[in-house]
UniProtKB/TrEMBL annotation:
Gene3D superfamilies, per database record: 2,3-Dihydroxybiphenyl 1,2-Dioxygenase, domain 1
Residue ranges occupied by any VOC domain in the UniProt entry: 8-122, 136-251
Name of the protein described by the UniProt record: Glyoxalase/bleomycin resistance protein/dioxygenase
GO molecular function list: dioxygenase activity
Lineage: Bacteria, Bacillati, Actinomycetota, Actinomycetes, Micromonosporales
Pfam families noted in UniProt: Glyoxalase
Amino acid sequence: MGIVPAGTPCWTDLATPDLADARRFYPELFGWTGRVAPEPEAGGYTDFLRHGQAVAGAGPPAIPEQVPIWSIYVAADDADLVAGRVEEAGGQLVVPPFDVFDRGRMAVLSDPAGATLCVWQPLTMPGGEVFGVPGAMSWTELVTPDPEGAKIFYELVFGWQPDEQPTGSAGHTGWRLGSQIVAGMTTPLGDFPPGAPGYWSVYFGVTDVDATAARAAALGGAILVPPRDTAAGRCTALRDPQGALFNAITPP
């Protein structure tokens, strides 16, 4: 069993062509330590730990032309069952369910607007072991040009219900699973390229957003959106040295 209930984001990992530099950049930024998978077939896949607890991972890209990207994983009791709903709901099954050693079973899917995310059925590896604290995944959000299509898709696949403006912020929707808001959704900014696919974004908690942004730039990354106050907290959008996008947030 995982740490979080089925239908809840439970893990995030980075696919990057320069795993060695990711092992440098993120520990220096967030204070993480790394634990490399022992299996040669894992390609050096690394769990990032916060005080000994797993919070994120990083590994080589699945295909050489894959752009560096952080991916979101949603916990499932049965990855095959979830995967079976995807095409009926209007999405695509990008990678059918497969076993990841003895750690778990996963699949990769995309929603009708092209946003990809993963399903994780935990076995020996539950996913993240701590959430919502500095240095750990604190929020995930879908950025999509097709929010109405997303509402249909994610309800059919994960049982999520849209909760309009959960933080009082116009244009934002919360994804509710039972009594809990488990993720968010927003529409793209005005400069979003026409026809570009939607995407899932990850937010890591920090104690000082401004200092984190400055530190990321000093370590070779870039500040895409300077620190700003929002209804959800003070946040910034960043890019790592290889081009992967991520966010840092301090809740209000």
